[in-house]
Fold this sequence. Notes:
The structure is a single chain. The protein is an alpha+beta fold. The chain has one domain (3-186): Aminopeptidase, CATH 3.40.630.30. The protein has five helices and seven strands, in the order E-H-E-E-H-E-H-E-H-E-E-H. The chain has helices at 25-40, 77-86, 117-130, 148-156, 178-186; strands at residues 7-10, 45-51, 54-67, 97-108, 139-145, 160-161, 171-177. It has a seven-stranded mixed sheet with strand order 1-2-3-4-5-7-6, with helices on both faces. A hairpin with a 2-residue loop joins strand 2 (45-51) and strand 3 (54-67). The longest helix is centred in the first third of the chain and has 16 residues, at 25-40. The protein is globular, with a radius of gyration of 17 Å.
Amino acid sequence: MRLTDLEFIAINSNTDFAGFDCGDTDISNWLKEDAMKHRNQRMANTYLFVTNDQVVAYFCISNDSLNDLGEKRGFTNNIWNRFHRKNLIPNPKRIRNYPAVKIGRIGVNVNYQRTGIAYELMDFIKGFSILNQKAACRLLLLDAYNKERQINFYQRNGFRFVLDADENAQKRLMYYDLERLESFLSH
């Protein structure tokens, strides 16, 4: 099964996701208990891919930005200079606050894991973030569980670490530069 075979919908009060299980209690329970609350408070929008009223995969996104949080949080001038060079941001355009979309949660039903759906989902989110955009957005951000499987998955999808300072933390801040996708699509 491919992502294109599934129905894409925004979460709503009629959605039944009681049977959703991605193998991670926190991610599964967030969909069941918190997704509607976040939508109703305009904190995050959750989107689902479903088949036969079963949630196959979901993601939630919200507005965010990558900010200079100061040297105490690991954001030294060195980090910002490296970030600018790595992402080919010209000197006159360099700032310390970049508009972003935050991927708050992403989950794939255990029955559909290891089928390639997760990779298709990441590609979909990237495209979804730049097509028909209403607000400018340069980056996709996420806080990845600092576990080998999750880190490898995001790195294979083109995400990079923002900092080295969070190397031993429970979660690592990662980004994807949407300009890479824009350049690819324009050629």
